[in-house]
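Researcher: Re-running this chain for the archive, since the previous output was lost when a drive failed. Same request as before.
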Amino acid sequence: MTEEIYLAVPPDHPLADRKTVHLSEVAEEPFISVTSDYAFGEMVKLFCYEAGFTPDIAFEIESFDFIIQLVSAGFGVTFVPHSWTESNHRKLPPLLQIKAPVCQRAIWLSWVKQRYQTQIAKEFQAFATDFFQEKLVKEL
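Model: Regenerated structure tokens:
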């Protein structure tokens, strides 16, 4: 499954009323990022490199909730995966679709067919497969 990544900006940011943005437009902005321990943190740095700049990481934090609070308070901008916007019940700052570069991530699940799986693992595999197949059908 491919998931879109959005750019979140503070509510009073000059770009806040826009629907889309080219990532290069925020090259001079401070970024708030998840720590580099997470693959997502490294991935979003690559998006910035692809847009032609090195992000000015003002804060690296483990909690998406706290990152969103900092963005809402005007401390910088951040990347937000689409799935997080669906599951988050808090008020989010403005989210902009990134036109260039394409900012997406692949979500996948794999297993070794020849390896023994517990009943719980089999049930999780069936649940995840059904869940994502339904999501893909809705998106199409």
